[in-house]
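Appendix C: a fully annotated inverse folding record. The material below is reproduced so that readers can follow the format used throughout the book. The structure is listed first as C-alpha cells, followed by the designed sequence.
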C-alpha cells in the first residue's frame, strides 16, 4: 500500500515537471524573443536618454531638471519594453497587476511626500516656463536679490544684504514674481519738493534738461518731471528717468547721482527745497492763541516790574525820611 502511494507521488511529480518542461520548450522561442526585446529597448532607452539629455540641457538652465527629465524618459522607454516583452510571453495578467501596483505605489508616494512632490512639479514647470534665470534680479514674497541657483525643490536667492535665501519652488510658482532683469532696463523715480513761491514748469524744465545731458541715462525722450500734488510745505514733484539694468552705473549709484543732480540744479537756479515748518496754535476749541498768551505774559511781567519798581522807590523815600529825622 505504501509502495503504491509512493509510486503515485513520483508519477504526479514527474507529470508536473514534464508539463513544465514541455511548456518551457514551447515558450523558449518566445522567451528568447522577449529577452531580445528587453535588451533592444534597454539600448534604445540609453540612446534616447542621451539624446533627450542633450536637448533638455539646451532648454533648461538647471542641469538637475534636465537630468531628471532625461532619466524619467529613459525609464519610461525601458519599462515600455519590459511590458511588451511580458505581453509577448502571454503574461497579460502580470502586466495588468504590475500597472495596478505601480499606480497604487505612485499614489501612496504622492500623498506621503506631497510637499516635496509639489515643489518638484513646480520646479519642472518653472524650468519649462522660465520666469527667471540664474543671475536675474527678482523680488517675491519679501525676498529681493539675485538668483544664484535653481534646483528641483527650491531656488537660491542672494539678497543685497549678503544673505542666501532658500525659497521653495511652489511659493515662486503660486505667487507674483517681479523680474527686474528681463527687460534690460529699469526706471528710477525720485520725489522732490519745491517751495510754493517757485515756478513748477521752470523747475521741471531745468531738471529735465540737466538729466538729458547725462550719458548713463537712456531713453532721453522718456525723462519726465511731473507735479504730484501739494504737500504741507512744498509742491511735490516726481522725477522719472531710465537706466540700463543690470549694467553700469548700477541702480543705487544711478539713484544717488540723480538725487545729487536734482539738488544741485535747483540750488544753482535759486529754487528752494523747503523743509517742514510748524506753527503752534493753542486757540483750538476754546484755548488761547500763542500770541495772545505771549502778550498777556508780557503785560503781567510789565505790571510785576512796575510794582516792584514802585515798592523799591517807596522804600527808598522812607529810608531817606528816617535819615533826615535822625
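Designed amino acids, in order:
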Amino acid at each position: 500500500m505504501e509502495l503504491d502511494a509512493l509510486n503515485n507521488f513520483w508519477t504526479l511529480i514527474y507529470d508536473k515537471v514534464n508539463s513544465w518542461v514541455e511548456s518551457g520548450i514551447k515558450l523558449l522561442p518566445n522567451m528568447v524573443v522577449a529577452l531580445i526585446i528587453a535588451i533592444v529597448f534597454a539600448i534604445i532607452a540609453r540612446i534616447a536618454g542621451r539624446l533627450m539629455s542633450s536637448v533638455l540641457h539646451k532648454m533648461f538652465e538647471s542641469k538637475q531638471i534636465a537630468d531628471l527629465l532625461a532619466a524619467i524618459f529613459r525609464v519610461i522607454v525601458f519599462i515600455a519594453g519590459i511590458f511588451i516583452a511580458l505581453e509577448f510571453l502571454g503574461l497579460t495578467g502580470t502586466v495588468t497587476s504590475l500597472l495596478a501596483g505601480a499606480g497604487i505605489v505612485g499614489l501612496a508616494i504622492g500623498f506621503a511626500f506631497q510637499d516635496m512632490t509639489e515643489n518638484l512639479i513646480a520646479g519642472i514647470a518653472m524650468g519649462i516656463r522660465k520666469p527667471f534665470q540664474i543671475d536675474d534680479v527678482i523680488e517675491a514674497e519679501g525676498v529681493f536679490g539675485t538668483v544664484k541657483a535653481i534646483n528641483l525643490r527650491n531656488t537660491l536667492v542672494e539678497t543685497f544684504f549678503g544673505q542666501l535665501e532658500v525659497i521653495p519652488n511652489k511659493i515662486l510658482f503660486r505667487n507674483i514674481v517681479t523680474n527686474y532683469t528681463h527687460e534690460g532696463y529699469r526706471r528710477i523715480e525720485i520725489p522732490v519738493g519745491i517751495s510754493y513761491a517757485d515756478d513748477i514748469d521752470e523747475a521741471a524744465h531745468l531738471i529735465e534738461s540737466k538729466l538729458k545731458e547725462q550719458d548713463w541715462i537712456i531713453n532721453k525722450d522718456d525723462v519726465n518731471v511731473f507735479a504730484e500734488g501739494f504737500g504741507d510745505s512744498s509742491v511735490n514733484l516726481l522725477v522719472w528717468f531710465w537706466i540700463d539694468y543690470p549694467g553700469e552705473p548700477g541702480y543705487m549709484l544711478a539713484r544717488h547721482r540723480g538725487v545729487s543732480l536734482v539738488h544741485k540744479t535747483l540750488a544753482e537756479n535759486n529754487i528752494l527745497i523747503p523743509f517742514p515748518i510748524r506753527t503752534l496754535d493753542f486757540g483750538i476749541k476754546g484755548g488761547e492763541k500763542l500770541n495772545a498768551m505771549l502778550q498777556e505774559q508780557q503785560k503781567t511781567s510789565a505790571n510785576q516790574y512796575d510794582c516792584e519798581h514802585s515798592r523799591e522807590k517807596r522804600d527808598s523815600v522812607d529810608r531817606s525820611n528816617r535819615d533826615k529825622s535822625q
